[in-house]
């Protein structure tokens, strides 16, 4: 219990200390017009209040990841707490802040465009594929997971296919309509459910004196699965997630002032880290042992753990509200996954999105592909999601490092976590069945070599940028902002 409480305190303190340092180091400009004004189209570029932007950002990034991931990561034991706390403060929140701010400085650009600008045009096309893969997998997973929870909550009285269809209809509307018409209006309701579920479970863990284990560096996984690299691909949202790099540009297009970026981007990642801590602690403490948790996961995946934890701690009525709060999370990330995919494709092929017919033209094929993907087993999808997700996170951190290096600011805040995740990424690809299946110990060393090669490429691109006469770090603005 002491480790749990200290972890929560550290996360909050991280926002007021390291988060403040990152913000001051980057240097927000209050008088610089944001894309919400400079590019305003009343569809995707719409200035909104900081409170709305913060809530939308939190709900966008907090899908099932900060719940399902920490529940599965809890099998490793309290070492998972370290990754959630330090990963969130020094990697995930920095990742989200830099992605959001660099996007704001570049007309609300999405990650593929930023990767092309800062890491070379080849990376633009590579990252575009990775990002769209990630968003499609995320959107699909965030259709099936809330549908399964709702199906279970209603004791199967409504067919699973019907629930999936209804969610798809909602996703379609939220993808093509202006952001302030659906997302901006219903998210406060969803946000209330999110807060109720997270605070309720966390409060009851403390009140009941749940036997949350104290910190140990031992690997508690019943199957002996290695911490490196698997833990960092099991717990993504809540610590570091490339999915967030696809969501921050959505809010960069509605942020009304750069001075609000710390609370919107860094702060909401800290909030997600707290959610992840609560569910990891609940999973570790309420099933008797790590083997007991594994048995529940085997019977119904993480969705069953959510249901049992909520009922166990909050009773049937409030437990149902908590489950509804969890259902809200993937739905409010699934809708913006498809919205982000639409925007990225439209930017890539230079197709204006003012006309709703053009939005449907991009969106419909995405939903057809996603529906086909719902026929694939969830656990298989999750493995590929984790791989694509952390690849995207590493790229976003390297973009941040390049931006700060060119700007002559402290680029180590991005380069250190970027290097660490790149090494993990190569180790994962080399050693896992979805990759090359090479012996893990050999993969560790091969990954070091591949990481060094990437760093050499990174410095090569840096030299090209500083030698270029026409490279613009920030896109020039065309109007003055009036609030």
Automatic annotation (TrEMBL):
Q: Which UniProt keywords apply?
A: Cell membrane, Membrane, Transmembrane, Transmembrane helix
- Read off the Pfam families from this record: CstA
Entry's transmembrane regions: 6-22, 82-104, 125-150, 156-174, 186-206, 226-243, 263-290, 310-332, 360-378, 384-404, 411-430, 442-460
Q: Where in the cell is it found?
A: Cell membrane
Q: Which domain of life is it from?
A: Bacteria
Q: How does it sit in the membrane?
A: Multi-pass membrane protein
Ranges for domain CstA N-terminal come to 2-217
Q: Does the keyword Transmembrane apply?
A: yes
Give the family per the record. Answer: Belongs to the peptide transporter carbon starvation (CstA) (TC 2.A.114) family.
Q: Which protein are we looking at?
A: Carbon starvation protein A
